[in-house]
Amino acid sequence: MSRVAIIGAGMAGIACARRLAEAGHAPVLVDKGRGIGGRVATRRAAGLHFDHGAQYVSAKSAEFEALMDGLIDSGAAADWQDGAERRHIVGAPGMSAIPKALAADLDVRQGVQVSQVAQVDGGWRLTWDGGGMEAAHVVLTVPAPQVAGLIGADHDLVRQIGHVRLAPCLTLMAAITGPAPFASRRDPDGALASIIADSSKPGRPEAEATAWTAQASPEFSTQCLEETPERMVELMVPLLLDALGAAPDRVSHAAAHRWRYARVTQALEAPFAKTPDGTLYLGGDWCIGARVEAAWQSGSAIAEDLLERLT
Predict the structure, then answer these.
(1) All structural domains of the chain
(2) What letter does residue 177 receive in the DSSP assignment?
(3) Mean predicted confidence (pLDDT) in 81-96
């Protein structure tokens, strides 16, 4: 039986696993995806890089800023001069470089979709298609609405996080020929709340077309959440072209991505939740707030609490 299993290789899961590994433990990190990092993600298409989740990282704490500075020194991240007053840090050559660098040397098992987490003698049993494992301690860093599907809707922890709310976000990725009129634009009241020229970020491929990522407002995203990706493109491309003052014939690539649980609108307001015996933990950005740093802080706090039990 493993001592610690962590479900979800986003920033919270990586932070927890990294801290435990630094203390000499060997946590097992499982994730359903082909890549790691959760919404700190990059998609490659049309010879360009699209950061279709988190667009950048900002640091409020000195500790997290030092972590990001270390990634900059290693070449996995860079400062992005987008005109913002606050420092914005991006992965190089894409946002996915950040979680990849932070998860180096960790035991990460990808393509593993856990379907159930059940208590057994001495710990917990993780079950997935064609396999499973047991662990004395389990950390769930999945979105709050997905917890009930793993541990059961009647579990006390599900009731504890019942007030947490997350909103969806639809993302458009488009390659548009011609120079970029701006690096970033935010309009909280518009259908496209954020428009980013990913090609303006350091270390991105040089091409005739500019890589644009547009993220819809919570209202637009909720209204169109169940549309097909093709229909999302049809709805969002004209909005982007209007914002850029560009003609339709300049679009050489367009695709959409649905983030069903993206924006934290009501946080847990605690770094994590756990069972009284400290064998099952819940964490993620939804515990603290809608920031990459919040996810990291949640995972780190879980690790520190666990270390008091493991030593």
Answers:
(1) 2-164+266-310 (3.50.50.60), 165-265 (3.90.660.10)
(2) E
(3) 96
